[in-house]
Every structure is written in structure tokens, then in C-alpha cells.
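Progress report, Aim 2. The chain analyzed during this reporting quarter is listed below.
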Amino acid sequence: MEKLKNVERLLLNNKAWVAQKVMEDKHFFDHTSEVQKPDFLWIGCSDSRVPANEITGTEPGEIFVTRNIANTVIHTDMSMLSVLDYAVNVLEVNHVILCGHYGCGGLRAAMGNKQHGLIDNWIRHIKDVYVLFQKEIEAFETPQEREDAFAEFNVIENLFDLSQTSIIQNAWLKRGSPWLHGWIYDLKSG
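Predicted C-alpha cells for the chain:
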């Protein structure tokens, strides 16, 4: 019964949010129900502590979002590629933000040797990034510094992988955009 109350809380929160939005702008939902034209695509981590709209202060319709474990760009991930294609070629976003974060559980799992089950297939790509930058990562003194460095290298490598997709390459040839941005979010400071 307690778990059901958690779902009810979400529904009540939605009602309160709707009331607040209508109070601020009575035409809010009229505008958001029209065609979306975001300027940004966000490729982020699935971590519940890194919600794109919340941390960027954007409203519904301003940022198109896809998320996966450790903000990973894999050329065989049809879900991410479909979102990327739609954002770049249909919505014509001008910016793609690939945002990683410190304290990422997916990266922590990739740094270790423990087996996790099905997720190991996903983590394999992340482990490859770790191996690629292992010398640089291990040069840091503390485990926390190494983990933070890995988060940064993971963004760099996945941003490179993103730049190599045919979707981005063709968009650059056709219209000279979108701009690609690599970000790191710090859970401790925002």
C-alpha cells in the first residue's frame, strides 16, 4: 500500500504543477501543445539526480532529451540514433549537449571487475573508454579524482563518437550545424 502512495504523490505533484503553470501563464499548455521547436538536444545519463530540464532551468519544449547509462553514444544503439536523427533532421536543433556527471554509477561499475548481469553488455563500451584513457586516469592520486577524470574522458570520447555519426557528419555538410558541447555536471555543487 505504501508503494501505491508514492505513485499517488506523483499524480498530486502533477496536479499542483499544472495549477502553478496555469497560474503563471493561462496559455502555457496551449503553447506547449503546439509544434515543438527546441534549440537543444540533450544526451545525458539516466541517473535520476541529473534531470535535464531541472538543471538547465528550461521549460517543456525547450530541450529535446535522450538518456542512457553513462551518457554513452554507441553506433549500434538504434534508440539513441533515432532520437539524434529526429532532433537533427526534423527538429533541426542547433546544439547537441552531451552531459556526463561526477558520481556516475555506470562509470563506477565500468572501473570495477564485478559482474552485473545484462548491463555488462552496455558497460563493455564504457570499459573500452576506460582502457583508452587508463594511463591518464590512473595518474590521479585518489579514487575520487580518478573517477572524476574518467567522467570527463567519457564525455570527450562519446562526444568524438557523436561527431563521427553519419547523422552529424551529414548535417554539418548540409547546414553547418549542430554545434556539439561536452558538459560535466557536479552532483555536489550543481
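The chain has a mean pLDDT of 94. The chain is about 55% helix and 15% strand. These observations will guide the mutagenesis work planned for the next reporting period.
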